[in-house]
Amino acid sequence: MTSSGLSTDQEKFLVGKLLDRSYLNLVMGSLCDKLQMREGAGKTAYMVRYKRMNVPMATLTEGSFGASSTFTLEEVTVTLDQWGDWLEISDVAQLTTKHPVMQQAQLLLADNAARVMDREICVVLLAGTNVIFGDGSVTDRQSINETMTISDGLLKDARAQLANDGAPAYGSPAGDAKEVASGFSRGQGYILVCGPEIVNDISSPSVSYGTFVSYANFNDSSKLLTAEVGKWLNFRVLETNFIPRFTRLGNTTIANASGSGFGVTGLTVTVSNGAGTLANSTSFAYKVTRKDLLRGFEETISIIHTTSTGAADDTFTFVLPSTVGYVYNVYFDKTSASTTDAGLGLVSANNAASSTVTVLAVATGAQPPGSVGSSTNTTISLIHPVFIVAQSALAWCGFYKPKMMLSPNTATKDDPLAQKRTIGYKFFGKAVIKDQTRLLRLEVANA
């Protein structure tokens, strides 16, 4: 008789200490000024700046003071969002599990809330208008190629742009013109937030060792052993493993009627005569994106694909892949045969694996994130955003901090036998860019 045949007579051993979850380094919340809204003020926060006056261009003449100058106001607004999640736990689960299940539920929800808040700050930063794509020679994400990695030259260009725009480094003077005496401290530098791949590129030797490697090898070689960049070129580098990395969904082949040409297993796109209003014998464009349920970033993105309707076809049907752990967004043409993201709009968001999306009409929703590579750029695989933040660039506006809500452990009308308890969190707030010139986003490849 083998041991497997006697397994029902063996005492189970359960280790008392739970296995740790992997570590996530969340940094975005620490970069935001905290603004508390009062109840009754509505869901929109308003911030006002008096814009700088123009300087006079001519001298005064005797006895004449000329026309008066003017000034204008600049308004920054943000509309708050409410987020939350919750769990329901039975009394049997509480009584029969070795580890305190309510305590674990609280820890899981706290981790959940922290990721949601960090993600939403990232989403706001990704919408920033101050951006350098690749090495600065291209104007959109899909034009970035694999050679356009982070470099000293790119960082110097970024620092010069921020300095010319008057973006104050952390710890330096902010607001209005000031005379800075010689020897005055220039602050602690700008904050540069990036993923591990970008840290690797900064600290990797090139043909001549690379500037950072040469400096670190001469001054503090321990940084090379620990992959610690610290401060470089007036940037304080913060590494995070919770930042989007954009990659392509499928291949770069233009699909025709089916997902087989799309290069995504399980994704099909069909056209049929249905109840829609799509024009007959017309080519329509679309795009599909994917989100990881543990991260929530829309970071896996197809290029724009096109399919033509037939003589009496007016409905598109998307059957999404069956791979679990993801949800999908579908974007569709706003007119016909769009070639750019601006011509597409969101028609269905956060669709589960294996679900079906039916498109009956042209889209009206938000446009998709930029493509990673195009049909002529087949070598690029990952695009990394790098956020450079100056002092007072960001704020988090909210009515309250995340709250943990726990139902009582007693009988109620809805639960007369006290068989279940609920626990959850909610928060009401949103990040806002207070000044676009104080925030710069780089989007680069990695080596």
Overall shape: globular
Distance between the termini: 56 Å
Class of the largest domain in CATH? Alpha Beta
Indicate the CATH topology of the largest domain. phage-related protein like fold
- Tell me the structural class: alpha+beta
Average of per-residue pLDDT values: 85
Number of spatially distinct domains: 2
How much strand content do the residues show? 25-35%
Compute the CA-based radius of gyration.
Answer: 27 Å
Largest sheet: 12 strands, mixed
- Would you count the extended β strands for me? 21
| Elements, N to C (H/E) | EEEEHHEHEHHHEEEEEEEEEEEEEEE
CATH architectural grouping of the largest domain: Alpha-Beta Complex
The residue ranges in which pLDDT falls below 50 over 5 or more consecutive positions are: 223-227
Query: Helical stretch count?
Result: 6
Portion of residues within helices: 10-25%
List the topology elements.
Layout: E1 32-36, E2 44-50, E3 73-79, E4 81-90, H1 91-96, H2 101-126, E5 131-133, H3 152-164, E6 190-194, H4 196-202, H5 211-219, H6 222-226, E7 231-232, E8 235-239, E9 246-248, E10 268-272, E11 283-292, E12 298-301, E13 305-308, E14 315-319, E15 326-333, E16 344-352, E17 356-359, E18 382-389, E19 394-406, E20 420-433, E21 439-444
Parallel strand pairs: 1-19, 5-21, 6-8, 9-12
Antiparallel strand pairs: 2-3, 4-20, 6-18, 7-8, 9-18, 10-14, 11-12, 11-13, 11-15, 14-17, 15-16, 18-21, 19-20
